Amino acid sequence: MVSETALIILLGILVIALSILLLTRILREKREMGVIRGMNLSVFSDFLRANSLEGNIQQVAGKVSELLKTAFRCEFIVFLRKKRNVLELNYYHGLGDFNRRDFRVAFHHRLSDELRKDFLPRAVEVLAPLLPDRLNRQLTILGADVFFPIFWRENLYGIYFIRSTIETRAPSFSVLAASIAQALSAAYHIKWHESRQDQLKRRLDDIRLVVQRGSQGGQSRRNSILKLVKHRNSETIVPKIVSAIKSDLEMKRIAYVYENKGDAAVPVMFREGVDSDVDAPDRKVFDEVIGILADNEPRELAALIAGHPAVGEWTRQLKASGLDYIASFPLSSNRSGIIAWASDEPLQSTSRQLGFLRPHTMELVESAESYQRIEEMSFTDNLTGLANQRYFSKRLNEEVSRAERYGRKLALILFDLDQLKIINDKYGHLAGDAILKQMGEILRNSIRSIDIIARYGGDEFCIIMPEADARTCVRFMERFKEEIARSEFQIEGVDSVVRCTASFGGAIFPDHADQPKTLIHNADMALLKAKESGRNNYLLFS
Known about the structure:
Elements: H1 4-32, H2 34-37, H3 41-53, H4 57-69, E1 74-83, E2 86-93, E3 105-106, H5 109-116, E4 122-123, H6 133-142, E5 146-152, E6 155-164, H7 171-216, H8 223-226, H9 237-248, E7 251-259, E8 267-272, H10 283-292, E9 299-300, H11 301-307, H12 312-320, E10 325-328, E11 337-343, H13 347-378, H14 389-406, E12 410-417, H15 420-427, H16 429-444, E13 452-457, E14 460-466, H17 470-485, E15 502-509, H18 516-532, E16 538-540
Parallel strand pairs: 15-16
Antiparallel strand pairs: 1-2, 1-6, 2-3, 4-5, 5-6, 7-8, 7-11, 9-10, 10-11, 12-14, 12-15, 13-14
Helix pairs in contact: 3-4, 4-7, 7-13, 11-12, 15-16
């Protein structure tokens, strides 16, 4: 039998072992919470908001560096910025003497694939097989703990390597590091879009110079075309182009038919100087005429009518409306167009001038389309397809200025979903994403045509309602609150439908605020009060 003394000793050892385990756990949790304690949440919130609204890369990158040094207690930081196909040293902290060439990395597909696997911080050893030996040696000497990429969609902007004195494997560290990485990625992505916009502007300026030189060479007067170089909307530019061609080529009447956006889009027609109500042809006739005019040679309408009976009815309408000639005139490289006109100028002269204008007109439209696509991407929330906070801020300033100028009211509504955290905890974050996406659809179908909707952040949305007073605002919040409450949200993998509610806060310009920031604050305060009073509620600021 075990003696009483041995039993006491055994129990003592067990108590000591348990105490050591408990102490180790306490110390580990203390280290894991270190990043949370070191984080000034108001500073962090201001940092994220500044990035969403401003996208200033220097400001955001500087704040990321400060957060890494203070809240994350990083003794060593290296940021390699991607330039073309190379990663180069862009920022460092805690380095002594070093050779920049040791931190130069050729970017390749295998490295890209590995970085795309996870946006959370990971151990540096994961990347070791893909990095040059000289960089691996430097990272080992410096004791780098983890790395995380700065990535947005298809674009890699850089990689951070860090060494921290706190627990880098802690969930709190990973979540917050991923948050600042995504914020910096967004800032770089916005900068990338703005650079693309600048390139487009320079390209348009080059077009203007080419056209201007052609004009000075006596080929044609094209002053009206020159004025369109800075136009940014690919649809509203079309009537302006038609008017410019009519004016500069001294046409008496003109009609232009082109493909609207979309693969099977119905042709659109714009007329100037044509009195009759001749309409655009159907798609079949349009395609047949495009085929006839594929050689880009203008034709007399009378000859076209006689030689091609299949398109005779529509072309006879053009002839009856006073038009004499017809030619192919594409709107862009993937959107066909047909131009018909009447002029006292010889056909050969007009044909030559149209041939000169054709490629430059296509360039104008394609540049405007590219500009729109880039702008839409920088102003669009990826999940819901709604406008993002950056666009909301821009439009709120514009609408408040307009309301002030014309002495009108404007309503601002902020609302968020009451049970999204519960749904995420129960079904996972993909369920929450599905609800946010469906909420975007419900919003689009519930607002007036003049209202502006955006995802403000997380599960919070905002609605700008021009020319809306307090009564209109309250009625909308009441109606929309009920609509959300009775909506059935579908989640993949969940058999039953999911329901949720929302709380709303509203404020009116100029009744409750005379500046955009104050208006946002007051609507937010009303939202907080609505949630405090029981959720599934709405309040107007008072």
